[in-house]
Amino acid sequence: MPDDRKLFYSMAGTLHDLAEIQGLLEWDQQVMMPRRGAEQRANQMASLAGLMHQKATSPEAGDAILKMENRDDLTADERADVREARRAYDRAVKLPGELVQARAKAVAMAQSVWEEARPHNDFPTFKPHLEEVVKLTRETADALGGENRYDSLLEEFEPGMTEEHLQGLFKEIKTRLVPLIEAVRGAPGQPDASILRRSFPKGGQEAFCRSVVADMGYNMEAGRLDVSAHPFTIGTLADVRITTRYLEDFLPTALFGVIHEAGHALYEQGLAHERYRNPSGGSCSLGIHESQSRFWENMVGRSRSFWRHYYGPLKKQFPDALGDVNEDAFYRAVNTVKPSLIRVEADEATYNLHILVRFELESALLRGSLEAADLPEAWNTKMQSYLGVTPPDDRDGVLQDIHWSAGLIGYFPTYTLGNLFAAQFMETLRKDMPDLDDRVGRGELLPIRDWLRENIHQHGRRYLPGDLCIKVTGKPLSASASMDYLELKYRALYGL
Question: Whole-model pTM above 0.90?
């Protein structure tokens, strides 16, 4: 008879490997796959999802988990593995295999259609695919059960979080954020953000971005940097791939996008080698994952100390575009606060309002008070209400994000949670590393990577997100640290 431990970890490792294969197929679809391969890829993704579901919900899997639960000699990490295996199994067995396969196929098709529809401002072509994804997502939430659909889906991305808790956090954020944005917008001496819209050839952008992520510690021998319609990170440990998109007339898109994705990649490369295939060996949650990317992109990458070191090399890379721009003007430009249409190009202060728009639309979609066909109008109304801007077309409106086509409904709040976690982590890092700004000002970024690896990355899913936050910072998650950070930074930058 096989050893209970050996069987349990063999089955868990197989599921992890299949998930990595699934990720590689998704990467290929967005980076390399010929356009006409969409239907074949959808069939492949559906078949693979069905196989994974079958293995994850088999009686043998349930029996292996139960036998481990009945042991009294488990280590702390093994108990965490059993906890996560049980959580995943109990969710999976509630979902019919046919629904899992149908949703996987619908998502694969929707992503391919979205890639074509967005540049052509063609919501009508995308609409039936989005309607199918929403329909199947509602069915998935209903099958999972729970008090409401949103909580059922959110548990997959951020264990322990609820829609009600999110509403409270967003209320706290709005209370302090809206007055700050109004004060900043009315301040004299606004930054000249037009300097970011000069000519920045793609080759120079890529060379500079590669040098920065190398300083951050991103190992290119265990990763790649490619181009896709929407930036993303996929993979784990020794094969972690990031993508970006280059706009030669707007520098921040690739510059901060690559730093953002490298933050995700460092997390995956920092997982414990001996545990990464185990149920609790992967990343903690998407909120914690986003904390890593937002931490690097904004709290490091948009800091004054960062540009004290990196502006010289950037100016050398683009002497024609930046020859008449000094360091202070550039720092102020990349920290301009101005309500905008595009989430991934939004400044730190207004970013959470973009997430609030999507959170409320997702909630309405799942309740059934909003249908996919009505999203463009609802989107524009909320953008005007929260940010004071109305998209001129669907390309820069409802079509701008890939997430809903990818079935990631209930995902968007993890971006805001990432901002909140990141601010609390930065508070603690500053206590542990009082000379942080001096180090960053010298381009010494590896000590930051090492601190994050020790305190966050290596733990994987050993702790639930809320517990990890308390372990690292000594405090439960709140909006206070993030709002304190934004107020301090932007009141100083705008002379308020």
Answer: yes
Choosing from 84, 132, 261, 297, the catalytic residue is 261
Given this model, what pLDDT does residue 146 score? Answer: 84
259: pLDDT strictly greater than 50: yes
Cα separation values, 448 from 220, 300, 481, 486, 488, Å: 18, 9, 19, 21, 22
* Amino acid identity for residue 38 in this structure: A
- Closest Cα partner for 418 from 479, 329, 370? 479
Find where tokens 């930074």 sit: 489
118's CB contacts (< 8 A; 6+ apart) are: 126, 229, 395, 399, 400
Q: Is 225 helix (H, G, I), strand (E, B) or coil?
A: strand
In whole angstroms, give the CA distance from residue 462 to residue 78: 9
Angle at 282 between CA 81 and CA 361, to 5 degrees: 110
What confidence tens digit (pLDDT) does each residue in 101-158 have? 999 999 999 999 999 999 999 999 999 999 999 999 999 999 999 889 999 999 999 9
Composition of the chain by helix, strand, coil, percent to 5: 70, 5, 30
The residues pairing with 225 across neighbouring beta strands, listed in sequence order, are 242
Q: Report yes or no: 320 and 339 within 8 Å, Cβ to Cβ.
A: no
Tokens 């991934």 label which residue?
344
pLDDT band at residue 2 using 50, 70 and 90 as cut-offs = low
Please state the φ and ψ torsions of residue 339, each to the nearest 5 degrees: -55, 135
pLDDT in tens, 398-432: 999 999 999 999 999 999 999 999 999 999 999 99
pLDDT tens track for 364-393? 999 999 999 999 999 999 999 999 999 999
Positive or negative: CA dihedral 341, 345, 347, 348? positive
Dist. CA 298–CA 301, nearest whole Å: 5
The residues, ordered by sequence, that sit 6+ positions from 154 with a Cβ below 8 Å of its Cβ are: 161, 162, 163, 166, 410, 413
Dihedral sign, CA of 424, 425, 430, 435? negative
Q: Let me know how long the chain is.
A: 496
Contact at 8 Å (CB) between 230 and 367? no
DSSP code per residue over 384-422: HHHHS---SSSTTTTTS-STTTTT-TT-THHHHHHHHHH
Name every residue whose Cβ is closer than 8 Å to that of residue 417 and which is 6 or more positions away in sequence.
158, 161, 169, 286, 287, 290, 291, 465, 477
Cβ-Cβ contacts under 8 Å for 403 (sequence gap 6 or more): 409, 411, 412
Q: Mark whether 261 is an active-site residue.
A: yes
